[in-house]
């Protein structure tokens, strides 16, 4: 029986899941595929820690170059993350004629052009299913299942850590730091967790999804990105009173011939399916012109869910090698649709949630609403909690759709009022506009 040989570089959370599946299910995979996929080596600087996976003697090594220079290895799996030395490792693998599987969304979003160019030159494939939304086969969905569609909009909850934190804060009243610590212990968070909580990881994934869906280059630098660190339990409670949930959402949305690309905490009506996506689960809502709306749902991080996505790429590539069908896909990240413009953030239109800290005295509300009105911003509903004569109380409003630029200018003016203390908290709202 023929053997396709695999070398993994990086034996962390995802490396462990991948190695577990390849070794513990080797026979099952063999009978499913009709050929064998063998894990020849894993390279990691830490060769001592017990990951709970039984490996044969000599499989775990320290030196990644042993894998990269081994003529027997067909597929190199890069799982060290980050830009350097992951980029150099992948480029060397490609140059040596090896196919590559990676979960490295940061690298693809930022240096994808270089990586895919090199792959095309050396006629090898790059698999990156695990880079976006963990166990959900969303790359396959966009590239294959929806190939006959024009994709209109994408809304993704694509960072498990941020979703885990917001869910814990919403359902258990846990504070931000404790929830983040738990997510780190469970192996969901990035090496640098600011990537998770500041929306950067979601933006990396959105850059990949948007490139495949809209035929644009990887546009990570053009994505407006805002994290979840300013969300307070108070905002979560108010959101719930208005019938909304707060989620970190990655949005690629067509509007007036332009494409909006943004990641920010977003209020979504609590009765929409995507609002029910809790904990480490991810969901990607995609509206194709032929399919209509569809929601793809599953675990977005963790050892086995992401390991499963890596193994699916290994198997795809192994099948391609066996049938001589490598390079089935157009190179990712090349502009097919150079005409589409990325919309400036100041031009987007959404509803807004506003929480002012306003002195409780006559005439204050009319000053705030007067400024909003002068910027063409219309109030939809309002709550004021408590009564503290002459002291600051939270005043919360939901607005109808307004232009971002108008809203920012209005808030700057409102925050300068003597009767408003502190900076106004605002959140963008998607859905629920009648
Ligand atoms: N840190 C990422 C997350 C891992 O929390 O979703 C999966 O990409």
Observed structural traits:
12-stranded mixed β-sheet; Dihydrodipicolinate Reductase, domain 2; 434 residues; 3 domains; binds L-homoserine; alpha/beta; 18 strands; 6-stranded parallel β-sheet; Rossmann fold
Give a brief description.
The chain contains 14 helices and 18 strands. The protein has 434 residues and is α/β, with parallel strands linked by helices.
Question: Which secondary structure elements does this structure contain, and how are they paired or packed?
Answer:
Elements: E1 3-9, H1 13-24, H2 26-33, E2 36-43, E3 60-61, H3 64-68, E4 75-78, H4 86-95, E5 99-102, H5 105-122, E6 126-127, H6 138-145, E7 151-157, H7 160-172, H8 176-185, H9 194-197, H10 200-214, E8 224-225, H11 233-241, E9 244-255, E10 258-269, E11 281-288, E12 292-299, H12 303-323, E13 341-342, E14 349-359, H13 364-374, E15 379-384, E16 392-399, E17 402-403, H14 404-415, E18 425-429
Helix pairs in contact: 1-12, 4-5, 5-10, 7-8, 13-14
In CATH, the architecture of the largest domain is 3-Layer(aba) Sandwich
Ions, cofactors and other ligands present here are: L-homoserine
Percentage of residues assigned to helices: 25-40%
Count of individual beta strands: 18
Radius of gyration: 24 Å
Main sheet record: 12 strands, mixed
Count of individual domains? 3
